[in-house]
Write a structure and sequence with these properties.
One of its GO terms (cellular component) is plasma membrane. It is found in: Cell membrane. It holds the Pfam family VTT_dom. InterPro entries: DedA_domain (IPR051311), VTT_dom (IPR032816). The structure is a single chain. By secondary structure, this protein is an all-alpha fold. It has one domain. Helix 4 packs antiparallel against helix 5. The protein starts with a helix and ends with a helix.
Length: 173
């Protein structure tokens, strides 16, 4: 754990970071991120930020990656089912769904063009994470296949972020 950063935090937050609940809280954060409900924190900062606070040893890195992949996949699956059952117009009318109709149409085109593998590809790229969740749900893609591809893309993305963080920390120190 990065004791310098943590020492400046309130005692209750320090206690949380040192507890078994830290990964549970991180799981919740990733569920919200996967469901596209967390607009106040860039998803690209969650894993590196977690590693900065919790440490980047292998004993910390693997659980953080596991929680990231599981949480984001659960969140995306929830959004997938909302899209599948409620439909495009329902989502576009909701304030919490901050994807414009034009952007959704563009991602529908990606899904139509490249099919299910585009789910993994989009989850592995900056700025497109999760964007094919809704088109996959609207297309009534097999949920098991969606979960596998979503998790694969998230694993690639979060592993790359973790690797960049660990490599960067090792370079600086």
């Amino acid at each position: 754990m990065n004791e310098g950063i943590v020492a400046e935090m309130p005692a209750w937050l320090q206690s949380l970071l040192h507890s078994d609940w830290a990964l549970v809280v991180l799981f919740g954060v990733f569920v919200l991120e996967g469901a596209m409900l967390m607009y106040f924190v860039p998803s690209e900062l969650i894993v590196p930020g977690s590693l900065a606070l919790l440490g980047h040893s292998l004993e910390t890195l693997l659980p953080v990656l596991g929680v990231a992949v599981l949480g984001a996949t659960v969140g995306q699956l929830a959004l997938f089912f909302v899209a599948e059952r409620a439909g495009r117009e329902y989502l576009l009318q909701k304030r919490w769904f901050r994807v414009s109709e034009d952007a959704l149409t563009r991602f529908d085109g990606w899904f139509d063009r490249w099919g299910a593998p585009a789910v993994a590809g989009s989850n592995a790229m900056l700025f497109t994470r999760g964007m094919l969740t809704v088109p996959a749900g609207l297309a009534k893609m097999d949920p098991k296949r969606f979960v596998a591809l979503s998790a694969l893309g998230t694993l690639v993305f979060e592993s790359a972020l973790a690797g960049l963080y660990v490599f960067g920390v090792d370079l600086l120190w």
